[in-house]
User: Which sequence fits this backbone?
């Protein structure tokens, strides 16, 4: 870890501790607001589909960057603490100033698997979806029966930040890979600040399931075979972590180039060209990294 990353981590951990103290003080006190009094009342078609499920039960509230639609306050309040943390941490890492963004993201919080399945069906979502970002809205499941909520909220907020500040042109592997990687790291930081022994997770890709980089980065949609979806997510995360680990600033330049419609090969050459002269050179080094349980350190 370089000196800059070390001090960034320290600042983030301090912010988590402050948020944790706020969470303890305000648990159960997220102020409810009537739907017609929210500062941002833009309800999307998918949002209307969510609110149509048991419509009399929904309550509403808002914080600096988010509007929340929920059933129980004790579920929504911790979500509000996490959401603001992830939003600030991810935007900071990506070098984006969010202070002048006036529109708020709407977060719809489902509490039962049955309601989520109904929403999946009505919204025509993929069957494996445990949360979704759509056009600036987030839809998540927070089952009160589970103590540990997982990193799905951080994953979807990563999609939100990418969408807001880089646009909709980011390729699917890069979008999902960054969301997987950042949510794993920041969720672990959030939990460690609460005295849990949490570490980021990065699974290895089974050698027989490895997707050549040229194939992975050319994909325009998720794999049709649901059995390949896990390998797609895992390898996308590993490729992001691999490039980010080589050089954070070069990765951000690469992300910027890709978001503006750059091809993978030309964007790679402009940002990592001194490291990888050809796609084959990248593929050979990355495959060794991606298929190991404990991936070797990336040497700058």
Assistant:
């Amino acid at each position: 870890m370089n000196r800059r990353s070390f001090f960034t981590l320290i600042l983030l951990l301090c912010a988590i501790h402050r948020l944790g103290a706020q969470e303890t003080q305000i648990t159960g006190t997220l102020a409810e607001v009537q739907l017609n009094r929210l500062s941002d009342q833009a309800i999307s078609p998918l949002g209307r589909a969510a609110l149509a499920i048991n419509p009399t039960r929904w309550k509403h509230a808002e914080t600096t960057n988010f509007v929340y639609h929920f059933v129980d306050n004790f579920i929504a309040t911790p979500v509000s603490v996490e959401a603001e943390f992830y939003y600030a941490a991810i935007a900071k890492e990506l070098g984006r100033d969010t202070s002048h963004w006036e529109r708020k993201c709407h977060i719809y919080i489902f509490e039962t698997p049955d309601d989520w399945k109904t929403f999946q069906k009505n919204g025509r979502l993929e069957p494996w979806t445990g949360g979704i970002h759509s056009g600036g809205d987030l839809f998540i499941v927070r089952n009160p029966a589970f103590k540990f909520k997982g990193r799905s909220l951080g994953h979807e907020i990563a999609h939100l930040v990418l969408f807001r500040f880089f646009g909709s042109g980011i390729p699917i592997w890069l979008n999902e890979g960054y969301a997987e990687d950042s949510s794993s790291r920041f969720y672990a930081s959030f939990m460690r600040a609460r005295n849990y022994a949490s570490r980021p997770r990065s699974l290895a890709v089974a050698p027989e399931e490895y997707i050549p980089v040229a194939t992975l980065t050319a994909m325009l949609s998720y794999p049709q075979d649901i059995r390949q979806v896990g390998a797609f997510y895992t390898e996308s995360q590993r490729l992001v972590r691999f490039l980010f680990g080589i050089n954070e600033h070069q990765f951000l330049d690469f992300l910027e180039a890709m978001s503006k419609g750059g091809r993978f090969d030309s964007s790679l050459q402009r940002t990592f060209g001194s490291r990888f002269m050809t796609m084959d050179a990248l593929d050979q080094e990355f495959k060794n990294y991606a298929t190991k349980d404990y991936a070797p350190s990336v040497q700058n």
Observations:
- The first helix runs from residue 3 to 26.
- The beta strands are 59-62, 66-70, 105-110, 131-134, 137-141.
